[in-house]
Amino acid sequence: MSVQRGVYGGQAVIEGVMMRGPKWMAIAVRRPDGDIAIHREEVQSLTQRYPLLRLPLLRGVVAMWEALSLGISALMFSANQAMPDDEQLSKGEMTLTTAVGIVVAIALFVVAPTLLTTYVKALSASALLTHVVEGGIRLALFIGYLVGISLMKEIQRVFQYHGAEHKVINAYEAGEELTVENVRRYSREHKRCGTSFLLYVVVISILIFSIVSVENVWLRIVARIGMLPLVAGVAYEWIRLAGRSDSPLVNALSRPGMWLQGLTTREPDDSQLEVAIASFETARGHGLPG
Questions:
Q1: pLDDT (tens digit, 9 = 90+) per residue, 45-63?
Q2: Nearest Cα to 18, choosing from 171, 168, 192?
Q3: What is the domain partition of the chain in residue ranges?
Q4: CA distances, 166 to each of 11, 127, 147, 187 (Å)
Q5: Is the pTM here over 0.90, yes or no?
Q6: Most CB atoms within 10 A, among 68, 70, 204, 278?
């Protein structure tokens, strides 16, 4: 994709899709009555206001924080559009839910693997083996979690919208007119996907966590948590490179992340593609609501 066309990304939400472009963030949600509710707002990254934050690694931390912030906003809008009035969520409830989710994720994917590898360290003097086993446990937990949630009917619909998001972006990057018929033909895989990002966070953590060797298990856990921004920054740089490169080597190294998207995307129906297209067109400034 040419730089002039702009880089777009997105996120599946409840019965809809959030898309973000260089200037606008848009959310389109299928309401229970069948209409599509659309919200858009102007966005400006901190990297545009503070040039220092554009430096490699720093920009990845900023991107992750901004994606989390916009994601909370998008999920709250989608939930309140897709659910009955008596089940709508407040911003405080959504923020609390997200905070609890982050704590649980850290406990499951950072604390648990580190504790479990203390048994390996007791059996082996090899620090390298300890880090590899810890990374293997983390990877197994991550894939197991994705397999588990992919069996839930509600999550499968979210994954359909995730597939619709990818198809629309792939069609746009190929220069296609964004119609349901055109978009339907494109792949559900995309190299800049958040699923790929999370996979490479796990893989890269094996290398970065091995830099600091701490004997005390609790200090080691604190060190792991403290190094997460560095891990995320490196993973972001890789995903950014992968999204811009057609190198055979980069494509080969991107394949595991693309394969994993088979768990987190499903083939969307035409009504879901319509929602994703509406979100994308609004994010690019076409047919903006008044």
A1: 888 889 999 999 899 999 8
A2: 168
A3: 3-283
A4: 9, 40, 20, 7
A5: no
A6: 278
